[in-house]
Amino acid sequence: MEERLQLRRLKKRDLMLLLILCAIAVGLLLWFWFGHQERGVVVEVTVDGEVFGTYPLDEEQEIWIDSQAREPGKSSAASQEGKSSADGQEGKSSLGGQEPGKSSADGGAGNRLLISNQTANMVWADCPDQICVHQAPISHVGETIICLPNRVVVTIVGDSAPALDTSVR
Which end of the chain has less Cβ packing within 10 Å, N or C? Predict the structure, then answer.
């Protein structure tokens, strides 16, 4: 009888220890998840591995990204000419001035990125799967939105330079 009572106490203590460890683990997870996220300063857009442009998160603007205009050897300034912003050029795009949802006769591909409230959100794409459009807006350093069919990558970048891991001579 005494042995059974001692076994029951051990089980209660084990359960309490397990609950305390779980609470500590959840607390550390929440601290890591919410405490270490640095707000981004700049959005970097790359098309087919080349930088298309960088845009500040504190300026509300709409960027048209023409993924077909980026060919190896073309300058990024030529690709940014179709960029639309809050300066009255809305509706114009590097897709030949077409409205969203209409693709050009030559099968042009593109995306529309909206920067507002210090977040970046892909609001339109002419790709078939629309995964990039359904992704939540991004605002923290390291977060990305990727459109694989159009080869577009949108990344949030911070203001500080990354710390060096090692130095090689």
Answer: C
Question: Rounded distance, CA 109 to CA 65, Å?
Answer: 9
Q: What distance in Å separates the CA atoms of residue 120 and residue 40, rounded to the nearest whole number? A: 10
Count CB atoms within 10 A of the CB of residue 4: 7
User: Which H/E stretch holds residue 128?
Assistant: none
Alpha-carbon distance 116 to 109, whole Å? 23
Q: Indicate the CATH number for domain 42-157.
A: 2.60.320.10
Please state, in angstroms and rounded to a whole number, the distance separating the CA atoms of residues 137 and 134: 9
- pLDDT, tens digit (0-9, with 9 covering 90-100), for 11-53: 888 888 999 999 999 999 888 777 666 788 999 999 999 999 9
**The dihedral sign for the CA sequence 90, 125, 49, 115:** positive
**How many angstroms from the chain centroid is the CA of residue 37?**
13
CB 83 within 8 A of CB 138: no
Give the predicted TM-score (pTM) of the model.
Answer: 0.58
